[in-house]
Specification:
Helix content: over 70%
CATH topology: Growth Hormone, Chain: A
CATH class: Mainly Alpha
Number of domains: 1
Structural class: mainly alpha
């Protein structure tokens, strides 16, 4: 009996463990091709300019990632199930070759290598999530998938820092980490490809998920423009905040007094992952998609309050550095995680639209990473003398306030656009 046939008749608990494990592991391995290079310092400026090398390298990769998200609006929304796994493998191969290029090319061409590294990697989330969406268990599966990017980023950077301390050259470190994870990545993609499509009960409860062509995408965006605009703007700020915290984690932790404890980049993310994912996964028992959508907005609003409140408490000396970093991390991911799994899956179902959550995720992501590039350039040229820590504290307050307002507006809008179950059925 094939794995796919066995999964089609497996008990829900076993199906969930398998699908969640395969998706978590595949996306976890992807981070080995994206994030390790950021743990190096790359001290100095680019040529005779005032642009710091590390900011330039991170910006280059994010530009590639942002372009990938723009392309993903079309590619991921039109991708057929049969081609997903092969596309993931091709993307990973290109990303690893680009990291080798980052190691061997002269300094003035290294940013180009990182653009090429980011270009394919931005597609991976939508391709992996495509195996999970549109199911009765999608909330739980999506939450498990999101755990991968919370934990993996710190883990692969810890691996990268260990390689640097072992003597691996700074520019070869990223390609080395990618090489370590290449075979496991291929194995987990194979396992993921065995997950069967949603069954009839899944379609009845979560609405049909079908590829969307250009006219269908434009019609959906125009019909719900006000609410989607509030969500996307909120996500722009949240993505910039998340990327800054992630890319400059080493500098922030060093400034907080943890320079001798590189494992803090991993261990501090464990309670963040646990807390945010338990909160999001808990809604999977809610069958009423309208109520679930309201609960998701409530979780996101609470996250904004936690980010704002804990930062103010830290600035006033009421909260220590490690608890503050955990609190702002939890607040960040209580807002960020829903965008990547339950928010749009429940939104599509509550609206009763024939669409894909992957399309909406990529609309938000494409805008979000543009915001991330803008923030990096503002920090380099607008606030060059402000320390990483002080900049992060100020941006934490701004993120909390802006997120609170925009998520509140979105909650009100979509509450009015959707109908209670009784009214929808009549």
């Amino acid at each position: 009996m094939s794995i796919r046939r066995w999964l089609s008749s497996a008990p829900p608990a076993l199906f969930t463990i398998y699908a969640m494990g395969a998706a978590f592991s595949a996306y976890f391995c992807m981070y080995a091709f994206r994030k390790p290079f950021a743990v190096a310092t790359y001290e100095g400026q680019y040529g005779d300019s005032d642009l710091e090398l590390k900011i330039l390298f991170i910006t280059a990769q994010v530009i590639g990632y942002a372009v990938s998200k723009l392309a993903g609006i079309k590619v991921v929304s039109e991708m057929t199930r049969a081609r997903r796994a092969l596309t993931i493998v091709a993307c990973i191969a290109v990303a690893e070759l680009a990291l080798v290029g980052f190691a061997v090319l002269p300094v003035h061409l290294k940013p180009l290598a990182l653009v090429l590294n980011g270009l394919p990697l931005g597609m991976i989330w939508g391709l992996v999530y495509g195996f999970l969406e549109g199911r009765r268990l999608s909330d739980l599966l999506g939450a498990g998938l999101c755990a991968s990017f919370i934990i993996a980023s710190g883990f692969v950077k810890s691996v990268g820092k260990a390689l640097l301390e072992a003597g691996v050259p700074e520019y070869w470190m990223a390609a080395t980490v990618g090489g370590i994870f290449l075979i496991p990545m291929l194995g987990f993609v194979f396992l993921l490809a065995q997950v069967p499509p949603p069954d009839a009960e899944d379609v009845a409860e979560r609405s049909e998920r079908a590829p969307m062509d250009g006219p269908a995408r434009r019609a959906f965006l125009l019909k719900y423009a006000p609410g989607l605009a509030a969500l996307v703007l909120g996500y722009v700020v949240l993505t910039a905040y998340r990327d800054f915290r992630d890319n400059f984690a080493r500098e922030i932790w060093d400034a907080l007094g943890y320079a001798a404890d590189p494992e803090i980049m991993t261990t501090a993310e464990l309670p963040v992952a646990f807390g945010s994912l338990i909160a999001v996964a808990a809604i999977f028992k809610l069958k009423d998609n309208r109520k679930a959508l309201a609960v998701v907005h409530g979780i996101m609003i609470f996250g904004a309050l936690l980010t704002l409140g804990s930062t103010l408490a830290f600035q006033m000396g009421w909260l220590g550095p490690a608890p503050w970093m955990i609190c702002v991390g939890l607040g960040l991911y209580l807002g960020y995680v829903p965008f990547n799994c339950v928010l749009f899956d429940r939104l599509v179902a509550a609206l009763g639209a024939v669409a894909t959550a992957g399309f909406l995720i990529y609309v938000a992501d494409s805008a979000g990473y543009v915001g991330s590039v803008g923030l990096l350039l503002y920090k380099n040229f607008g606030q060059p003398d402000l320390s990483w820590l002080e900049f992060f504290k100020g941006f934490s307050v701004l993120t909390g306030v802006v997120s609170l307002v925009l998520y509140g507006l979105s909650a009100v809008y979509f509450h009015r656009q959707t109908k209670p179950v009784e009214a929808a059925a009549s």
